[in-house]
Amino acid sequence: MNIPSVIYNSPPRSTSPIHRFIPHSPTCPLLPSTTPPASPPYLFTTDHRQRVLTQLRSKATGLEKYIYLNGLKDREPNLFYEILLGNLLEIVPILYTPTVGDACSNYSHIWRRPEGLYVTIENKGHIKEVLRSWPAAQASRIAVVTDGSRILGLGDLGANGLPISIGKLDLYIAGAGIKPTTTLPICLDLGTNTQKFHEDPLYLGIRRKRPDTEEMDEFMHEFMEAMREVFPQLLVQFEDFSTDNAFRYLDLFRNQYRCFNDDIQGTGSVVLSGFLNAARLSAAAAGTPLTEQRILFFGAGSAGIGVAKQLLSFFTLQGLSVEEARSRIWTVDSKGLITADRKGLQEHKKFFARTDYQGPPLTKLEDVIKYVKPTALLGLSTVRNAFSEEIVRLMASLNTRPIIFPLSNPVSLCEVDFEDALKWTNGSVIFASGSPYKVTEFNGKRYEPGQGNNMYIFPGIGLGTILSKANHVTDSMVEQAAIALAGSLNADEQAAGLVYPRLVRIRDISAQIALAVIRAAQKDNVDENSLFRNLSDDALLEYIRAKQWQPTTSHLPRL
Fold first, then answer.
1. Is 150 annotated as a binding residue?
2. Which amino acids does the record list as binding a divalent metal cation (predicted)?
3. Is 96 known to be catalytic?
4. What are the residue ranges of helices labelled H in 231-301?
């Protein structure tokens, strides 16, 4: 039997990046049973992207959709990223918060194939060899590294934390155009203190308690030095380390290696950006200067204190000193208002601990609000519904337009829902959350919620750092990223009173942020790519956009 040669004009699937299909022909003979299956003859006349979306939307739960998209990325990565870019608002919440929390919690049970790199505590002493096993070592430009010890608000998930690194890198690819083959998801499997995982027969990680500080420090120093040697051009983003370790390793490594912590610096930067725009709206409504903003934080973990430190920049940008700025920020944890005389106060909480309060301990948030009279209430507590009706109405009674940012992820841990915040403030609230909420109608008016999504910031910081070849990520680079984001709203978004631009413009936003990051790196003299210094802003922005990776696909499934 003569089989048309077109059937065999590409190697088998395992070695071929391109897969050809049999064109429709009435004379084409039937294939023997040993031949790989062909595509349906009229597949070319259909829109396979729409087929994929229909299949995705048929799934009943977010976790099922996550698993489906994971399989699509394995089978047809270009189509996966094209679908992602074309449907950001629908798919980002599946790949990242809130659904990625479910994926992490269940990862040992839904695992299907290797997706990233595990480095275990047992690898101590030869971490370099483990890193060299990654097939794209020289091409790697960015790694997201977690130890699984504080995944979102879900606690210590151990080796189940890898999807957080995978999801974050998908957002780098979608948001900034980082090339997929240059990304490296890493989970440091150092054990877990969550007993149910030790008892789970399907748990993928090492079954031991987490190391003490000395053992962990030894591991981290070896890991970071090995990363620099094996991946000399790599940017490391730390993700979801426990609060104390998040601050500890950022402080230890930020001036030695090309790294940053998104929970601390990224969250702080994106909130600073939203707050710059929110404060302008609030101050204009009240007829007060921006310097009179008073910010109360509910939640004093790594994210809360990191954001608070970043918001010092809001006041220093208005001409205040750091001490004056610090006096306008209050922090509250589970024990109440944080004061310097509290016994056993954790180190990271001391910076904002108040020395000017002499009364009895203020343990209730409502009492703290009555004392502070804040213009802005920010939640990073992971306490669901912490901003009760009484709290929100109290904020509205103190402010013409109260700023309320419930920033905890996922939605199940959010301090207040958008619809409630609108109702309890009669529509006056300036709102931004950590998780997505839908557009809501209230009293016949359409309200569009802000989302303080780190996706606005970290892709641009990553892209700017990579292109400039900055040897460190400086405070100025992070601050300028926030300012660039705040200034990226177009006329329509400003007219709608938004505090963040619409996410569908993320590629353009990330390019603008990358430009600001590169210029800040140059000013701080940490850039190693000196060629950019000779380009105008317009020319550099054009270059950045040209470097953003775009998926290419035939829209046909791979055989």
1. yes
2. 239-240, 263
3. yes
4. 243-253, 267-286
Check whether 52 has a pLDDT greater than 50: yes
Q: Per the annotation, does 328 bind a ligand?
A: no
Catalytic residue list contains 438: no
Phi-psi region of 444 (alpha: psi -120 to 50; beta: other; left: phi over 0): left
Q: Does the reported pTM lie above 0.85?
A: yes
**Burial class of 58 by CB neighbour count within 10 A (0 to 12, 13 to 18, 19+):** exposed
> Which stretches within 287-427 are classed as H helix?
302-316, 322-326, 365-372, 389-398, 418-424
The answer to whether 240 and 149 have CB atoms below 8 angstroms apart is: yes
In a 3-state reduction of DSSP, which class is residue 385? coil
- Any known ligand binding at 263? yes
- Residue closest to 450 by CA, chosen among 270, 266, 240: 270
CA 77 to mean position of chain CA atoms: 21
**pLDDT reported for residue 555:** 56
> Residue 307 pLDDT more than 80?
yes
Which listed residue (65, 73, 168, 349) is catalytic? 168
Q: Are 506 and 88 in contact (CB under 8 A)?
A: yes
Distance (Å, rounded) from C-alpha 257 to C-alpha 248? Answer: 14
Average pLDDT (463-488) is: 97
Alpha carbon separation from 320 to 177, 271, 290, 300, 464 (Å, rounded)? 37, 19, 11, 24, 29
239 is in an annotated binding site: yes
Q: Are 308 and 352 in contact (CB under 8 A)?
A: yes
**CB 197 within 8 Å of CB 186:** no
* Active-site position among 66, 81, 96, 257: 96
Spatial separation of the C-alpha atoms in residues 141 and 96, rounded to whole Å: 21
Position with higher pLDDT, 14 vs 521: 521
pLDDT surpasses 80 at 208: yes
State the DSSP H helix or E strand holding residue 541, giving kind and residue range, or none if neither.
helix 537-547
